[in-house]
Amino acid sequence: MSYPYQIKSFQEYKEAWEKSVNDPESFWGEIAEHFIWRKKWDKVLEWNFKEPSIKWFQGAKLNITENCLDRHLKTIADQPAIIWEPNDPHEHHRTLSYKQLHFKVCQFAQVLKNNGVTKGDRVCIYMGMIPELAIAVLACARIGAIHSVIFGGFSAQSIADRLQDAKAEYIITCDGAFRGGKDIPLKSVIDDALVVCPFVKRTIVYTRTRTPVSMIKGRDVWWEDEIYKVETMGNPAVAAEEMDAEDMLFILYTSGSTGKPKGVVHTVAGYMIYTNYSFVNVLQYRPREVHFCTADIGWITGHSYILYGPLSAGATSLMFEGIPTWPDAGRFWDIVDKHKVNILYTAPTAIRSLMSYGLAPLENKKLDSLRVLGTVGEPINEEAWHWYDEHIGKKKCPIVDTWWQTETGGMLISNMAGVTPAKPTFATLPLPGVQPVLVDENGNEIEGNGVSGNLCIKAPWPGILRTTYGDHERCRKTYFSTYPDLYFTGDGCLRDEDGFYRITGRVDDVLNVSGHRIGTAEVENAINMHAGVVESAVVGYPHEIKGQGIYAYVIYSGKHHEDELIRKDITATVSRIIGPIAKPDKIQFVSGLPKTRSGKIMRRILRKIAEGEMEKLGDTTTLLDPAVVDDISKGKL
To answer: What residue ranges in 443-569 does DSSP mark as E strands?
Structure first.
């Protein structure tokens, strides 16, 4: 498959960006011509950021799976679409060609239909990283059902919150999942969630770990039994449902600055075109290369750059069930050599973790198939960038440092591998179609280079979120109300003398832990549910592996509150309510919290203490009780 819209030089990049800004309709219209449509669009773009209302390719009809699967059957039917590497290195890997993946997606689409799923229904998917997760996602898209994938590490309470918000009546899960040396009991977690979700009609369960599970008559069915029924019907080829360009494709929940997670909505056409365009250009994908994105499909990175971006481009996408350090810290490198991986796209957290093991795990690893390296999830620090460059890329592979969000659908600011300049720790330049601006606290644009401010985008790109599910006002308030007529990213940013962008971190109450966004309010709510906790405040602090760690200040009512057991109890509470990913790294018991006279917690002060920058606390005399700050500083962990 060729990509006529793949940028090949810095000059081409500059010309494409200029055209995309000056005439976005003809720019994206030309790119869209390279996809399969049932009906072409009447209008490429109509938008305003006030409501917000954003519509791409209005009037067009299509199905994303015809672009990811059917159109490849004539040209690359036998090429691997997905290579699956299991958690246990001794278990055999699986390869699905485009023809086989198409067959399995149609088969499972019929299973969904047989179980009552129709266009527009919300389907929650809570599975391990196995090919059946990809099949389930694509089968939903094929029949027009809206998938909502939940990361396999979330708790029953977190799942229940998401099921209730999406009003999802159908669930696809596994008996369990393997992750490193652990077995995760997925079905039993779902069972706990369903206690408060009686509206769920059907749970389809795939067998992976052979963990004993409870199967409720009338609600729970086995994946394998349902597939057998389809096989006995003669495996009908399920036609792809015709979708409107702006129909919902999926809901993906992300943490916000309130305790309630918000369901980011992406629609069919714009998301498809943007993930494909960014994949082909940033990673400079070449036909038949093996692309290894190490993310979980439960996060946006997996949606965009394991599934939809690569498959729509006819790429070979490798998905991995395990973790980078099990059974040893050479696992990624073994996979790269085994499958001759050409593109490796991973998180700075993983790189820093692997760095900590030294160079021994790299002994006898060739890594000579690698051509492009990438990072995603958070800004990469300079030491990790150089380690990645020197020891993994052998100083021969360009590194793309990609900045984007769940809400953006795809990469927004990044160098293009070997085409546009790279600079350690900088995401560098915006992709065509992306117009970043830096603003001060009052929303005034900060012009010129060598400046920093809050990062906003002033016009839509095709992959931008359309709404937050069931609550459009929340979408408006969160992203479009802080600065009029701008999309506010929530990130601070530096633009250097060359005009390159460097993300400096969140400016709101959202932490970036191992590349995953977690709302401080969500963690505080969970901590406060522990019986002895009176009040808590959570901030981020620099963590050498995760990038940001979670530091919790807790007022505890019981005696012996310094006891380590209480810390473990609080940690267990957070794990139970949100999931292990949100566990505080440090819990400091305090007698009070720094508050203004109106009762607002001054997290800025708590953040400085957590970072060890006591000399930068600023004026504390306006606080309700300034003495609290001294007590907290003395007790810092």
So the answer is: 451-457, 467-468, 487-495, 501-506, 510-513, 516-519, 533-543, 547-556
